[in-house]
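Internal tracking record. Fields below are filled automatically when a chain is submitted to the structure queue. Please do not edit lines marked as system-generated. If the sequence contains nonstandard residues, flag them in the REMARKS field before resubmitting.
Queue: standard
Priority: normal
Entity type: single polypeptide chain
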Amino acid sequence: MRVTPLVRTKVEDDIVTIGIMSGTSLDGADAVAVRFRSDATGTDRMTTLGRAGVPMPPELHDALLSLALGNAPDEIERMGDAAVSLAKLYAEAVERLLKSCGLLPEDIAAIGAHGQTIRHRPERGFTLQLNHPALLAELTGISVVADFRSRDVAAGGEGAPLVPAFHTQVFPHESAAAVLNIGGIANVTILPAAADLAQGRAVVSGFDTGPGNMLLDAFMASRFGLPCDRNGELARRGRVLEPLLKHCLEDPYFALNPPKSTGRERFSFAWLSAKLAPFANAAPEDVAATLTMLTARSAAEALARTAPETERFIVCGGGARNPELMRMLDAELRRRTAVRIFSDSSRYGLNPMDVEGAAFAWLAKAFLAGEPGNLPAVTRARGLRLLGAWYPAG
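SYSTEM-GENERATED OUTPUT FOLLOWS
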């Protein structure tokens, strides 16, 4: 599928786009600038030019969390106010990024702005990413591509995950590989061996494996007033409570066959509180260790069910910075699958914290080129679709 591009870039084989992301963890906005150049064969070559982040202000964090949980009074007013604040936060991240890279607004073909998911209900035909792309275009002087999930959902898809198409482009898979992004929710991309893919013997697949950092972050916030278990220090001192882990893994989501996606709607703090209720006297370090293992084991078991022959495993996202989680994940994978090369994405030239931002820069580039951004085998959509909506700078 290819459609006529809405916008002709000044130099179509050499453009820079910015991807901006604020994920389920609600810890801030990260912007990544990416240059895409086409070589003599027409293949895109991607270079990350820089990254800038802006922490999420506490009041915006609380407002977005309240909206996501559905317990905000005057919800429409709060949505509008939060969207304005979010656009300003994104604009600040873009401004910092441009300064750090020595770029001007006119150097950027577009910003790919995912927005903040506050409700994801593909089974009911909708998904809602809070955003104000028109304001972002006004504040930055740069055109914006936004609302990437809706078209896939309208075509019968999950609208998530959207990063597998990007992973296919940037990570090597001469042999079977998998890419796990661990944000608030964890999602995996299954990359068959390139020869199998080229000859039609296999397709790229992907899905949300379950909670990433979200439940552990919620526990740390409620118990200690901390945003996360930094470097896995608390979990490292604890032991995994197998009965609690088993109780958590009994959730029906883990047994569903892909395509599938999930979010805070299912794995909420209320869900966690109910699971923890029979273990009220458990030591906090043991709870932290168990929630860390929940992320690791659910991802490893998902891979074992869907692609146990996978040899190379690549981790990106905030979870890659947690050494205890990485240790558990490595052990769980080697116990259940054929994985023999385990690393974060920096081994392949892409900072783990840049991958999602770079993915939305790529999705913006795909929109400009009139190319589809979804993979129907991943999302269950009825076909390839051009993803995004266009907000010109002027």
